[in-house]
Inverse folding.
């Protein structure tokens, strides 16, 4: 129960008026940058680094934690309302969320996202409080071979977003894999598909492509259709709150999302995107109404939103217990520790107990604060949809352009975004799904690098994926996911015949 | 911090740099420059960025410079920002760019038309030696044991570190060469930054790891990694890890950082910048920052720095050729 005493001490520090103000500022700022496509929590925390010269360490980290959590909340808002993911972790949210908005159910979509984020964020923070060291030790058992096998499962899960035609879906997935290859190869230092452009050496930013495919393509598509007189406003019917049925369908998805998201934050190859794919896949497989997926299933918003918030808490585990950054934001927060002369590492919990516990306490507070901040805003947000479409989408284009340029001040990025946007419009016109492109871009490099790291470690022996027990189990799960449905169907069919 | 492949945090908003955050200047008498334009060819938050901002902190606290303006343009080990600096700031007497070992290597591996040779060396400020570590349960108790394994069959000893062709990879190449093996035989596992590389070493996924000392310092202090050797000229203060030189391996490699001026400035303008950085280095604030950040002082200015740079470029080029990357 020592943990509880320490946590209480943390709350005592975090609840001082000054620190509460920092938590609020962080949550507010985080929500704002989450809404803006392109500008993410990592960039925001980096730009806030100079304040470490001025304010005490505790206040600065409470602020940073607020930004980090807030961005996860804000990112979902634009995904749902405008089909413009503010963060790469909220791309999946756009799939069902925007469909719900199109059907006049933007309110419930935003509500399930906000409450789901709160529920999962709180569960994950509690898990962080009590189990951090254990989970981190387990995560360290995973090496490149295990990551690769995990990616194999992820590729199976992608099937959930391929859409009605597998060929079209796979074509788009491979396009994403190609885009993911662009840049200097990590293992050999050689540039690939950069066409001599220095700006492409670091690869193409996922958010640039996502904004191009979702926001720019949607805008161009609407502009192209405008002449045909399809200019109706998005309908806003029914309550903006969750109905009893919505709630019944959401709560299990929240819990499953939290369960999936949390461990992913802890593993170094995780990131917040991967668990959202898994959560979407699981919800789609478990849903009693799979036919609703792609047409606005609330579980498809609730699960992934819970998963990305839970993974945000998960990321803090290896950072606080071992000084390991598993996300870009965490890496920048670590550099902030250093400007206070605090060396983040395995001894952080012992040497800086006050700081760590008040930061954890601030996560609980920040989560509650974000829920309070976001629920009343839903009524305001959905009104965005009342703006006539030409003006609304013109505005989106402006935001998307500013956001994309803001990532690296690069004109090449803008060119890539608009080129992808035009391509995305054609994809929409000919009914190709867009989500697999982004997923391919995220999974491809992860899978490739882990495969090659594993092969270097095993000196070129491919059996390493089967002889390492955890890796072999992952592969077995992937095989079961592929083989089980047709086998079960065949068994059922033969029984019926018998 | 290592250079990450994705540019997520490579950005620049000059407004952030303009945040009022420092003590008012103490005296105008000491002021050498009204303003300095500081170009950081990397995103906010990394090693180059913190070096630039540390110069600002020390210079303004001592009243040496009136104001600073920052611009961050990140990407490709500085190779995106460098051409921009060279083209836009040619002949500007108060412009500085932060750079270092990573920029030397990136210029060679990316075969860039504009490299670190195109800017005017002002001063080297800090350096950080590399450290070779093994997981705590490793059979290699000391350097001799690991060296024997590397000498016998480098392929059987997977070594984890930062991206291929980076400072960690170069250091391993130099070690293998000194041990009488071909650097290309190395079983080098590149990771996308300090976090994933550390995780792989802590989890015993690789046989050994190599990176800048600060990346691993806390793990070493906590006994979660065993440090076998460092790559510096001297031991790292406060540690008892032997240097490779002491162990009979003639290798020194350190990740250094310094500042450069724009091309096309006059010798007098260059001297004024050298004097400024020399004065910054002499301030108590600078000493304080060095201690706080655990940076090793490696001050070397003017012609001596230029000579060091030529040698460093030649050595890096040779190793990268051996590794098959240049």
């Amino acid at each position: 129960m020592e943990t509880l005493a320490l946590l209480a001490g943390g709350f005592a520090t975090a609840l001082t008026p000054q620190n509460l103000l920092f938590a609020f500022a962080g949550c507010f700022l985080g929500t704002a940058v989450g809404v803006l496509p392109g500008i993410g929590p990592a960039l925001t925390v980096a730009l806030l680094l100079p304040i470490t010269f001025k304010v005490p360490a505790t206040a600065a980290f409470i602020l940073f934690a607020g930004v980090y959590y807030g961005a996860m909340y804000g990112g979902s808002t634009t995904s749902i309302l405008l089909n413009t993911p503010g963060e790469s972790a909220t791309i999946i949210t756009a799939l069902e969320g925007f469909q719900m908005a199109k059907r006049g159910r933007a309110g419930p979509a935003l509500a399930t996202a906000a409450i789901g984020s709160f529920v999962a964020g709180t569960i994950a923070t509690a898990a962080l409080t009590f189990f951090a060291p254990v989970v981190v030790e387990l995560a360290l058992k995973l090496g490149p071979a295990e990551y690769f096998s995990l990616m194999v499962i992820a590729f199976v899960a992608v099937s959930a977003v391929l859409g009605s035609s597998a060929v079209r879906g796979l074509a788009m997935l491979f396009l994403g894999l190609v885009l993911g290859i662009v840049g200097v190869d990590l293992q050999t230092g050689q540039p690939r598909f950069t066409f001599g452009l220095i700006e492409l050496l670091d690869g193409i930013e996922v958010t640039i492509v996502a904004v191009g495919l979702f926001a720019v393509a949607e805008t161009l598509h609407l502009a192209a259709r405008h002449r045909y007189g399809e200019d109706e406003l998005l309908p806003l019917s029914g309550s903006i709150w969750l109905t009893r049925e919505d709630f019944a369908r959401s709560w299990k998805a929240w819990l499953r999302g939290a369960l999936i998201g949390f461990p992913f934050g802890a593993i170094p190859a995780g990131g917040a995107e991967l668990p959202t794919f898994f959560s979407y896949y699981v919800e789609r497989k478990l849903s009693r109404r799979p036919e609703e997926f792609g047409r606005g299933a609330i579980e498809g918003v609730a699960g992934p939103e819970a998963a990305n918030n839970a993974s945000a808490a998960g990321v803090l585990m290896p950072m606080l217990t071992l000084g390991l950054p598993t996300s870009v934001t965490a890496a920048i927060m670590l550099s902030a520790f250093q400007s206070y002369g605090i060396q983040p590492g395995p001894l952080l919990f012992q040497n800086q107990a006050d700081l760590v516990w008040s930061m954890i306490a601030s996560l609980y507070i920040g989560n509650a604060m974000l829920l309070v901040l976001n629920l009343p805003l839903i009524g305001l947000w959905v009104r965005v949809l009342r703006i006539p479409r030409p003006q609304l989408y013109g505005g989106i284009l402006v935001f998307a352009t500013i956001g994309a340029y803001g990532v690296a001040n690069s004109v090449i990025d803008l060119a890539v975004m608009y080129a992808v946007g035009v391509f995305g419009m054609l994809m929409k016109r000919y009914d190709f799904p867009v989500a697999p492109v982004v997923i391919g871009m995220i999974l491809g490099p992860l899978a490739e690098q882990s495969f090659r790291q594993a092969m270097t470690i095993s000196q070129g022996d491919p059996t390493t994926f089967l002889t390492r027990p955890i890796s072999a189990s992952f592969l077995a799960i992937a095989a079961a996911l592929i083989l089980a449905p047709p086998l079960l169907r065949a068994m059922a069919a033969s029984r019926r015949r018998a | 911090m290592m250079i990450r492949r994705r540019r997520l945090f490579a950005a620049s908003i000059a407004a952030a740099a303009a945040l009022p955050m420092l003590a008012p200047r103490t005296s105008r008498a000491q002021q050498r420059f009204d303003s300095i334009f500081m170009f950081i060819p990397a995103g906010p938050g990394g090693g180059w960025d913190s070096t630039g901002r540390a110069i600002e902190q020390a210079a303004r606290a001592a009243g040496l410079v009136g104001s600073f303006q920052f611009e961050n343009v990140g990407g490709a080990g500085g190779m995106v920002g460098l051409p921009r600096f060279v083209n836009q700031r040619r002949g500007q007497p108060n412009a500085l760019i932060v750079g270092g070992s990573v920029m030397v290597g990136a210029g060679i591996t990316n075969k860039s038309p504009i490299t670190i040779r195109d800017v005017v060396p002002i001063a080297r400020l800090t350096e950080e030696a590399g450290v070779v570590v093994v997981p705590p349960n490793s059979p290699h108790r000391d350097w001799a044991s690991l060296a024997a394994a590397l000498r016998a069959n480098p392929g059987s000893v997977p070594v984890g570190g930062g991206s291929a062709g980076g400072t960690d990879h170069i250091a391993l190449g130099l070690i293998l060469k000194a041990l009488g093996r071909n650097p290309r035989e190395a079983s080098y596992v590149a990771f996308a930054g300090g976090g994933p590389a550390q995780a792989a070493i802590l989890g015993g996924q690789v046989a050994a790891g190599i990176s800048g000392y600060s990346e691993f310092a806390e793990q070493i202090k906590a006994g979660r990694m065993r440090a076998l050797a460092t790559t510096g000229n001297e031991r790292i203060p406060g540690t008892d890890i032997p240097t490779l030189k002491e162990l009979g391996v003639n290798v020194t490699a350190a990740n250094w950082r310094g500042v450069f001026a724009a091309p096309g400035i006059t010798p007098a303008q260059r001297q004024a910048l050298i004097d400024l950085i020399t004065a910054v280095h002499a301030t108590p604030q600078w000493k304080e920052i060095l201690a706080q950040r655990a940076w090793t002082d490696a001050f070397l200015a003017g012609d001596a720095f230029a000579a060091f740079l030529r040698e460093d470029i030649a050595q890096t080029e040779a190793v990268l050729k051996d590794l098959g990357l240049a």
